[in-house]
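Worked Example 4.2. Consider the chain below.
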Amino acid sequence: MEMVPMRHSKALAEMGYDDARNVLRVRFRHGGLYAYFAVPRSIYEALLTDPHPWTNYRDEILSHPYQRLEA
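Applying the procedure from the previous section yields the following structure tokens:
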């Protein structure tokens, strides 16, 4: 999965999206890599352009099942 740097975000370091599985992968600046499952591509696309992606979409993303991949 290709990860995209999130230079405009204070919380997110990088993100990637798997279209085949609808999985959003997020690496946080504070550490930790997470996979969020069953996330619509529209959410990923909105995160890429939103000036405050985690602030505005945190609740939506956290409503999906997730798994911590790295500490």
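DSSP finds two helices and five strands in the chain. The chain has a mean pLDDT of 95. Compare this with Example 4.1 before moving on.
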